[in-house]
Each structure stands twice: as C-alpha cells, then as structure tokens.
Amino acid sequence: MREAVIIEAVRTPVGRRKGSLSAKRAEDLAAKPLQALIERVGIDPGLVEDVIYGCVSQVGEQAFDIARQAALIADFPVEVPGTTIDRQCGSSQQAVHFASQAIMSGDMDVVIAGGVENMTRVPMGSNMQGVTINENLTSKYEIINQGLSAERIADKWGFSRQQLDEFSLISHEKAIAAMKSGYFNKEIMPLEVNLPDGSLDLLRYDEGPREQTSLDKLSELKAAFQEGGKITAGNSSQISDGAAALLLMSRDKANELGLKPKFRVLARTVIGSDPTLMLTGPIPATEKVLRIARLSISDIDVFEVNEAFASVALAWLHETGADPKRLNPNGGAIALGHPLGASGARLMTTMIHELERTGGRYGLQTMCEGHGMANATIIERLA
C-alpha cells in the first residue's frame, strides 16, 4: 500500500483573544502557513493537488471556502483547489486524515492539510446566530454546552476543583519552560503584527501562557458554566486566534523530488461518542487507533491530547493508564490556546517537532469534538 508521509509542518503563533492577531483577517492568517511551507521545502506550489483546511465557524470572513481563498492569497496557481471542512475541534486533524487517505488511495500525491480560526474576529457560535437546536435532535438526546459536559466528566471521575487547577497550572508551567528553552522556535513562523502605537513588530511567541499564574490565582476564579461548579476559565482552553498547516506526500513522490520525509501517518480513526458527555471520545478513539497500529499505550513516546478542559485530559489519563510525563510535554490548550479549526494541525505540528527534538518514534494525537466525536492519529518518525 502507498505510504502517506509528512514533509513539513508549521504554525503561526497562537494569539490571545483581542490580542496581536486580532487585526488579521482569517483568510490572510490562513494563507501564512501555506506560504511558509512552500518557502521551507522549496517546491513549486503548482505541485499541490489540494488544500484541505479545517474551520469551525464558517461565517463572515471564515465563510466562502476559506481554504480556497487562502491558497489564492498565498499566490498558489489558480489550478490548485481548496476545500474547508468542519469536524468541530478536530477539523484540521480530520484534514490530515483526508489528505493521507487521498494519498494512500492513489488519488493524489501532494496535499496540504491545515486549519484556521480567528475567534476574535469570528466569535465561536457566530454560524449559529438566530438558530435553535433542532427539536428532532433534542427529543432524542440531552444537548448541553461543552462546559456543562466538562462538569459532568469531573463529577463522574471524581476530580476535585484543586485537581483541575493543578493540571492547568502544570500546563502553563510546561508551556513557559518550552518557550524559554526555544522548543517552539522551529515550528512557529513569526508574523508581522501592528502594535497599538501603529508601528510594526514580529510576533514570535504564543500569547496564552501565563508565567505569573498560581494555584491561589486559579482558585479565585468563579465557575464559568454552573453555579458552584468546578470548571472555570482557568482550567478550560483559551479562546484564541491562529493557523497551522502540514505538507503531505506519497513516499514515492517525496523520493522523486529529492525530499526527506519526516514522518509517516501510521494509523487514523474517528469515532462517535455520547453526545451529552460529548468530550469522552478520545478514550475509545485512543484504544481503537492503537489496535489499528498494533501498538500498546507504552509504545507511544508523545501524546497530544487537546486540553479542551482539564477534566477531559484527566479522564483520558485515568482510563488509558498513559504516562503523564508523556502527555502534552510542552503544555496544551489551557496554556497555549485553542483556535478551534486550527488546533488539530497545531497539535500535530507541535508533536512532530517534539518527537524530532527528543528522538522519539511514535506520537499519538486525539481530540474531543462537539456532538460527541473524536479523531485519533498515530505518526511514526522516519530515521
């Protein structure tokens, strides 16, 4: 069978809500990683046979097939198409799946997969304005917001408020340590941004990590979704702006072009889960993708599990028995941010660079998704 390999992966810095990236239109932001991939690898953009981007709130500046717009803005030839997909928070991870499937099937040889979300300019839920959840759905399932799902997960697994806050503090500490050590430097492409005084500067770092946070500060935050609850803004993922993309090829095409593949996409899966708890899907998705890859949890060197909420990652750890030291070693979405449609590609990009830095072989990524779904992917570093 043909192999789908990853040649390069790059991302923008992740901006805070109303932060340095808030002045950038989403289409322009989406184009930046496309340009960076071509510059880094040095190939003709006309070789790209499709651009597949994830984006959740496809309205306003993020409507009208942002993947195609981004490719045109990035000066790709008009012959290069683009398509935009929505699998909620896992949208750009699903883009990687679709790209690898197109390559493995023989339909294509060169595909870019990625994602974008500018949550400052296109707020979460913008695409649902004026619409209520269909009664034919609510009559079958209890449909609640994700914050309440996170509360129920915390209760079901018996996590205390302090445990959630401790996990969140560690996420910030790991992210700050990684930033200071330069671990993100290779994966991040600096972006030119406008400062409040009208001058220009280069944004080189993620804006989310908070060096001054502490358990005391986190404990002072009020519950965000339920009176007397445990889920706060401090132990939830941040509202963010950002984009990321990966260049995938068939191994034969990479060889033909004289390019050295970095990773191969070893196994992929997507599952449905309880639409009320909604956020537990990464647990069965992890079990399934490990079976497909014929690996055990102990074989995996790095896990990237999206920190939508601290309770989600803690429940995943509890059920899988994974080594906590291998989970999100450079921090997760609680510290780094969660630009919805871009997060899948951001996690994959970070995992790739961490495996390269440490010499690890296998990485496993999984994300919870709205309505109760989860993607899981295993990649293998190629020596």
Automatic annotation (TrEMBL):
Entry keywords, A to Z = Acyltransferase, Transferase
- What EC number is given for this enzyme? 2.3.1.174, 2.3.1.-
Q: Where does the record place the Thiolase N-terminal domain?
A: 5-252
- InterPro entries documented for this protein: Thiolase, Thiolase-like, Thiolase_C, Thiolase_CS, Thiolase_N
Supply the Gene3D superfamilies for this chain.
Answer: 3.40.47.10
Residues that span the membrane, as ranges:
none
Q: Which GO terms describe its molecular function?
A: 3-oxoadipyl-CoA thiolase activity
Annotated PROSITE patterns:
THIOLASE_2
Under which main EC class is this enzyme filed? transferase
A Pfam family matched in the record: Thiolase_N
Domain Thiolase C-terminal as annotated: residue spans: 260-381
Q: Where is the active site?
A: 89 (acyl-thioester intermediate), 338 (proton acceptor), 368 (proton acceptor)
Identify its protein family: Belongs to the thiolase-like superfamily. Thiolase family.
Q: Do you know which NCBIfam families this protein is assigned to?
A: AcCoA-C-Actrans
> What is this protein called in UniProt?
Beta-ketoadipyl-CoA thiolase
Organism for this UniProt entry: Virgibacillus dokdonensis
Print the organism lineage.
Answer: Bacteria, Bacillati, Bacillota, Bacilli, Bacillales
Gene name, per UniProt, is: pcaF_2
